[in-house]
Amino acid sequence: MTVTKAPEDAYTAEPFVPARGGLAALRRAAAGCRGCPLHREATQTVFGEGAAAARVMLVGEQPGDQEDRQGRPFVGPAGKLLHRALAEAGIDPGEAYVTNAVKHFKFTRDEPRKRRIHKAPTLRETAACGPWLAAELAVVEPELIVVLGATAGKALLGSSFRVTEVRGTVLEREIHGRPQRLVPTVHPSAVLRAEDREGAFRGLVADLKVAAHALG
């Protein structure tokens, strides 16, 4: 029997998103999402985490290796660095809602059973996962979104987004039908890869201070 695959641009999480319910209902539903092929290799869905009434939402790219194993966002090295940067900027990490534009870990391996290497999601994969991010925004209704890196920026602001052009500024845009303020910055994993890691970290903290000031 020949199995016909849906075209990649037809991938969407929309049928899996519940019509009602809070974050707990969304998280339960997301665990069974099959809206794009990324679920096939990932260990589990990694949904957002934090208070439903959080004033600030931090949006990253996708789960990493540790996040995929633990089922929680930003628990790996980049997450630990982000928490330190937030604290230095005056934002309590415990009062933020953290999530990713894509909820499954996309990776490659050079050899079987070797370390899993992060692979950036495509724009179509990011768009397929968009209904989950839209649902999170609708429930949390944050006062401010901190956009962590290019993939998150493109998911929220379109394919022309360039983090280097707007980082550390307060943008005002309509996101999923709702006026929203956003502060873009680099993803903390970029800080870990930087040659001048301390300088890159200071740049991240400076951008997050803009977000802290915007929150008042």
Fraction of residues in β-strands: 5-15%
Q: Give me the Rg, rounded.
A: 17 Å
Provide a count of the helices.
Answer: 8
Spatial separation of the terminal alpha carbons: 61 Å
Shape assignment: globular
CATH superfamily: Uracil-DNA glycosylase-like domain
Helix content: 25-40%
Please describe the biggest sheet, giving its number of strands, its sense, and whether it closes into a barrel. 5 strands, mixed
- Alpha-beta content class: alpha/beta
Q: How many domain modules?
A: 1
Q: Strand order, biggest sheet?
A: 2-1-5-7-6
CATH hierarchy class name:
Alpha Beta
- The string of secondary-structure elements, in order, is HEHHEEEHEHHEEHH
Question: CATH fold name, please?
Answer: Uracil-DNA Glycosylase, subunit E
CATH architecture: 3-Layer(aba) Sandwich
Average pLDDT taken over every residue: 93
The low-confidence runs, each spanning 5 or more residues with pLDDT under 50, are 1-7
Record keyword descriptors for this entry.
alpha/beta, 15% strand, 216 residues, disordered N terminus, five-stranded mixed β-sheet, two-stranded antiparallel ribbon, Uracil-DNA Glycosylase, subunit E, 7 strands
